[in-house]
Amino acid sequence: MKKILFWDFQGTLAHNDWMFSKALHTVLINNEPDSKIGIDKFKATPMIGFPWQDHKRDYLHLTKSEDWWKHAEEIFTKCYSSLGLQKEVALQYGKEVRAYLLKGEDFILYDDTLETLKYFKDKGYENIILSNHIPELPEIVGQLGLSLYVSDCLSSANIGYEKPNPKIFHYALEKYNYPEDVWMIGDSITADVMGAKAVGMKGILVRADNTDSVEYYSKDLRGVTKIIT
């Protein structure tokens, strides 16, 4: 019997806090070292339009990497413009942000990530990442050395649906022939736990406050080994 564990990535296996704000600020400072616009300004500026902000829609028109990034560049450009940069400059900087979001070195694995993935692989489970993320997430996962324990990486950007949309879960389940023993593990009650539950999967909430008293919860990944036995 095939045994599958779907893992969220950011906030579950690794973290890169304020990744978009940091990237936009880095591009600005590289071009304008004397700029008085600090990173806090970027953190305080809403970036609206990322697919995961409206999971009820389909994004099949953005499943090619270049199309996804063109869409994202429009968001970055609007952010720069809202902070007072001229249109032409904002457009230029918006195109430069992408390169700063593809570096695996900017993501930090939690200290229990590798040991937990190894534990379940040794127990006969197949570890698969299922995450709302950018198109190049599989490459980032490879850079972090997770490929030794993770057999596949499914990024929403390459699928066209965002968790908790049932379609992304059905996509993943269908790809692996609807396994009987299957779990979703992540840090979001809505995207990971409730999204999984809506399609008949069991979901485990990790690294978040269990304010809704979900059935399966662990403050870290080590606790997951006590839930899935």
Automatic annotation (TrEMBL):
InterPro entries referenced in this protein's UniProt entry, alphabetically: HAD-like_hydrolase_domain (IPR051828), HAD-like_sf (IPR036412), HAD-SF_hydro_IA (IPR006439), HAD_sf (IPR023214), PGP-like_dom2 (IPR023198)
Keywords from the named record: Hydrolase
GO MF terms, alphabetically ordered: hydrolase activity
Top-level taxon in the UniProt lineage: Bacteria
Record's keyword annotation contains Ribonucleoprotein: no
PANTHER family in the record: HALOACID DEHALOGENASE-LIKE HYDROLASE DOMAIN-CONTAINING PROTEIN 3, PTHR46191
Protein's UniProt name: Hydrolase of the HAD superfamily
Species name: Clostridium punense
Organism phylogeny: Bacteria, Bacillati, Bacillota, Clostridia, Eubacteriales
